[in-house]
Specification:
Blueprint: E1 8-14, H1 23-29, H2 31-49, E2 56-62, E3 79-82, H3 88-100, E4 107-111, H4 119-126, E5 132-137, E6 143-148, H5 166-176, E7 180-183, H6 193-202, H7 209-219, E8 223-224, E9 232-233, E10 244-249, H8 253-262, E11 268-273, H9 276-286, E12 290-293, H10 302-310, E13 320-324, H11 329-338, E14 342-345, H12 350-360, H13 362-365
Parallel strand pairs: 1-2, 1-4, 2-3, 5-7, 10-11, 10-12, 12-13, 13-14
Antiparallel strand pairs: 4-6, 5-6, 8-9
Length: 368
Amino acid sequence: MSDRREPVLILFARDPDRGPVKTRLAATMGPEAARAAYRAMLAATMARVARGAFARRVVCLTPDGAAANFSAGGDGEWEVISQGEGTLGERLLRAGRWASGMGRGPIVFVGADSPDLPEDRLAAARAIAEDEVYFEPAADGGYCLISTTRIADTLFEGVDWGTERVLEQSIAAAERVGLRAVIGPGWYDVDHEEDLRALHRRIESSDDRALIRLREQLQSITLREVERPNRRLSMSNFTSAPAATVLIADDNPQIVELLEAYLEALPLRTISAADGEAALNAVAAEKPDLLLLDIMMPRCSGFDVCRRLKADPAYQDLPIIVITALNEVTDEERARESGADVFISKPVNKLELLNHIRRLLSHKLAAE
């Protein structure tokens, strides 16, 4: 290989024709619809990541033995290997050791659950320094991409896979082996039916050929809800009139975009404000049903916004969720003293946020 810094891409995936896939999707959609959705997402992921500058592209498959009969197809040249047995951490370590013999370049792991992952995230993962590890957080507390130049034996140890602490514990494991964690802005994976609906909305107007094809395939899948067997859903049912309006007040456009995407899973209309004074003006003009509020903002802090709203009888009942990089106990105490109903530290866990929103807006969402 001419450039020893060229990265290797490893796509972790299940063979959709061997064993169950997307069991949480299958619980509401039925196993065949879930299998078709996963097959479409896998094909779109392979087509999109193949465009990146990688020395080698590898599909790492489970269950064991699937690699022998799997046809990668699609764009670009792909090798196919088996994940083998063990925990996800053990399988990542095994694949990473295999790839580390190909040179000193970054090893980029991705999954098939984030088919619309922006290409700039892959570029960031390819560009890491030798003492760094890059994580692209996912909404469920894990990550949808990890890139590292060093596969240490303990890099994936101490991680409770499948829990909301995966990212937090993975960062700690990386730091224990001397790697500096670089955290991306975050993206979305597909585990539940509401995630699939959000994916469909995100790619609805895309001109990316792979995503156009994915959209067409998803539209052809009839979705079934096992809890209501007489009702059949298709992608045309995935939009509904907003049940409530949520104001997102944050001076970071990427955070606003991320929160808007998280809320796509609910029938909500979102509006935004880039500073504290704009947030107060938006509350007065739009009469939102809920406020997601950053603390460190220009012109007027989130603490002051809380105090001013709660001092006004017209807005005393407005639910406020503070979402901030501040994470000390005193910060939470100050937020609650100012009138906040909920305090969440960044990076935001999607499930935690949506659960709070469902609770605070239960009277609005119950009719949906």
